[in-house]
Amino acid sequence: MEIVLLFLIPILTALFCLIPRSIQPIGCIQCFGMALFCGFGLWVIQKIIASPNPLHYWGNWMYLDAISGLMIVLICLLGFLASIYATGYMANEVEERIENLWKLKGFYGLFNLFILTMLMVVTTNSIGLLWVGIEATTLVSAFLVGYYNKQSNVEAAWKYIILCTVGIVFAFIGIILVYTAVTQAGGNKALGLSWDYLITIGSQLNPKLIKVAFIFILVGYGTKAGLAPMHTWLPDAHSEAPTPVSALLSGVLLKCALYGILRFSMIANLTSAVTVTQPLLITFGLISLIIAAGFILVQRNIKRLLAYSSLEHVGIITLGLGFGSPLAVFGALFHMINHGLAKSLMFFSAGNLTLKYRTKDMERVQGAFQLMPLSSVALLVGGLALAGSPPFSLFISEFYILYGGIKAHHWVASILLLLFLIIIFGGLTYHFGRMVIGPQPTTSPSSQTIPKGEINRSGPIAVLIPLALILLLAWWIPAPLLHLLNDSVRLITGGHL
Amino acid sequence: MSLDILTPERISQWIGFLVAIALITGVLMVGCRRLQEMIRLFAFQSFVLALLTLLTGFSAHSLHPYFAAGITFFGKCFLIPYFLTYVMNHVQMRREVETVVSLPTSMLLSGGLIMMAFYFSHFIPISGTDLLSKLLGLSISLVLIGLFMMMTRKKAFTEVIGLYLMENGVYTLTIATIFEMPAIIEMGIFLDLVIGVLVMGVWVYRIKQTFDTVNIEELRKLKG
After folding, report:
1. Which of A40, A138, A241, A313 is an S-S bond match for A245, by CB 3.0 to 4.6 Å?
2. How far apart are CA B193 and CA B60, in angstroms?
3. pLDDT tens digits along A338-358
4. Residue A403 forms contact with B (CB below 8 Å)
5. pLDDT tens figures, A484-497
6. What is the mean pLDDT of chain B?
């Protein structure tokens, strides 16, 4: 019942968004719809927590355990925040870059559809449907990436579609190999693609085959998760999409792909393939971290900077999953939520600034503090949080990952992680500090004409909520969330530790 | 008497024959000069794969592969090629294939890829039947050829065809392994493919509109 409603709400919101004839009501409907979505999400999560076993819906097609619960938290929260932000942002864009109201309605339609596909990815019980869901997210979000239809948008969308689809083809080979392993082990063929069944039969699967399958899956979904060196679509897509969508891409979509990898690694870890999965995850995580550090230092475009920072955080999460000790896994899962919040905060405040200055070039966005104090302070503080400084929850989760890595005796990887975190800290504080503090550039004539004040009303609200949340989560994790995190860690590490 | 051609040995021979035809079609697609021929060859290859599915279904005495064969036949021999042709005519691109590597060299290289694929397919521990090892080799070959095509052809449109060649390769793997896969998953995958080709067609069209060409070498503004 509640799950049906959860799926219905994005659809209904999309439909209702088609009705109004002016901009303001559309945004209100969207926000109201997503608030309802959050409410039903909480209901579902409460059910997950209350029941001792994972929930099944619609026969055996839906499977909700604590990990799905965590992902639902992420989708609901960021979907809601992005909707609030979109209300103001898109209204501003209508004045400048969007020709008519139907294009705006199309945006909200695609936005809700995108949320729906991500919801499907995290709730399905079948690895086949998970694949379908992830491909569906690509096809839908490509339209959002290329929404403005300029040359750079079209280029980004095309790269995004082609790279992710090729990646997903490889993931499909992995799925077939897993299925073959099930049939070879004499498993039930009709259930051979279901998570709950794969977990029970996992230890009997042929470890060699699972190793090969896991490599395919990691390359395939890793492309979508933005793991280096398959990440090349990521900075393009994140920088060209409308800002609310960038936040969703970075905050939720990358995690949905990681969720796929995580599920497969859970199965692989039941066999002796665990000797391959963990080093692979650690290696890919480190490569992502290194590449991200390099590009962050030399970046000039603020949205690309944030995209590379997503690459860094995906690397950190992958490292945490690769370390495999309960503490590191806890940190990794907690970091998924934290990064989602911090990254939406950053995209929103950076979006406010770029709307104001009408450029994404960081050289030309300077002295923002004098123009829009709230957004620019949020940008600076959020930048510190993103770089992993206390007192924000990202510090806590990164600390858990590092500590978990050291405790699991991954010395080299842990030291490298620390080193690159420091380098990235330097890079981010340098860039954001220069944008916010300091004088306004007086040389350019355009700066004279920029009026003071925030760009719209919804922008600051959407910025303040995640800021408050990452501060809060550093000191106090709400009991339901803690329950979900602990249960997920038990599910993930229970197999082999 | 009429069932003479469908003894297990004969079926195995037929399968070997069809695998060879599918491989040759793949190589020919790489060597194609005109886009229309490429689409026709794709449709033909899909038809061969549908036949393969039918044969394996017959030898396994299972009804399910017939369903998969039907879907493949309908989707990949008619729906997808029809739409590709539509996009090609609508966008009014030049009908010739533009390539980085010359066509004869491409064909030679894809021959090499096939040899590599069959060699390495022995290392994937899918133990067992003759059918499986043949199909595994074919599958990896087609995936590699598709990837090669995507890397060396200059048009956005040929990238889509290369992608679907890769997809054919993956489908080949499913022929051998997935007999009892629930139909809803198959339908989902099929739907994804069809929607995928629609979406990519739209983007080819938009590339043509915004860049006034479908040459992807023009798509290099975003860097760093």
Report:
1. A241
2. 27
3. 999 999 999 999 998 888 888
4. no
5. 999 999 988 875 44
6. 84
Is A257's pLDDT higher than 60? yes
ipTM above 0.95, yes or no: no
Give the integer Cα–Cα distance in Å for B173 and A212: 14
Size of interface A-B (CB pairs under 8 A): 122
DSSP letters for A296-363: HHH--BHHHHHHHHHHHHHHHHHHHHHH-SHHHHHHHHHHHHHHHHHHHHHHHHHHHHHHHHT--BTT
Provide the token pair at B107.
């064909």
Q: Is A192 an interface residue toward B (CB < 8 Å)?
A: yes
Q: What DSSP designation does A449 have?
A: G
Q: Which of A295, A163, A303 is nearest to A224 (CA)?
A: A163
Question: How much is the pLDDT for A496?
Answer: 46
Give the per-residue pLDDT at A40.
Answer: 93
CB-based contacts of A442-449 (< 8 A; 24+ apart in sequence):
A444/A364
What are the C-alpha distances in Å from B13 to residues A484, B26, B34, B147? Answer: 55, 20, 33, 29
Mean pLDDT, range B166-195, rounded to an integer: 78
Do B185 and A129 count as a contact with CB atoms less than 8 A apart?
Answer: yes
Three-class DSSP category at B93: coil
Angle between the B35-60 and B156-177 helix axes, to the nearest 10 degrees? 10
**Encoded amino acid at A129, one letter:** L
Residue with tokens 């909480």: A42
CA–CA gap between residue A85 and residue A241 (Å, rounded): 14
What are A163-175's pLDDT values in tens digits?
Answer: 999 999 899 889 8
Interface touch B124/A209, C-beta < 8 Å: yes
Most A CBs within 10 Å: which of B147, B177, B191, as the mutation test of the A interface?
B177
Q: Residue type at A443?
A: T
Q: Does A206 touch chain B (CB under 8 A)?
A: yes
Q: What is the DSSP letter of A451?
A: P
Mutate to test the interface with B, among A180, A217, A232 (most CBs of B within 10 A): A180
Q: Which one-letter DSSP state was computed for residue A125?
A: S
Contact call for A189 and B179, based on CB within 8 A? yes
Please list every residue in chain A whose beta carbon sits closer than 8 Å to the beta carbon of residue B200. Answer: 161
Q: Do A169 and B167 touch (CB under 8 A)?
A: yes
Whole-number Å distance between alpha carbons of B93 and B155: 9
Residue ranges of domains in chain B: 8-214
**Cβ–Cβ contact A399 with B under 8 A:** no
Provide the pLDDT for residue A470.
92
Q: Sort out which chain B residues have CB atoms less than 8 A from A184's CB and list them.
A: 126-128
Q: For residue A126, give the nearest of B166, B185, B219 by CB distance.
A: B185
What pLDDT, on the 0 to 100 scale, is given for residue A332? Answer: 95
Q: B-side interface with A, Cβ within 8 Å?
A: 124-128, 139, 143, 147, 150, 156, 159, 163, 166-167, 170, 173-174, 177-182, 184-185, 188-189, 191-192, 195-196, 199-200, 203, 206-207, 210-211, 216, 219-222, 224
**Cβ contact, residue pair B221, A159, below 8 Å:** no
Position B5 scores a pLDDT of 65
Chain A nearest C-alpha distance from B18 (Å): 21
SS3 B34: strand
Residue A287: what are its φ and ψ, rounded to 5°?
Answer: -60, -45
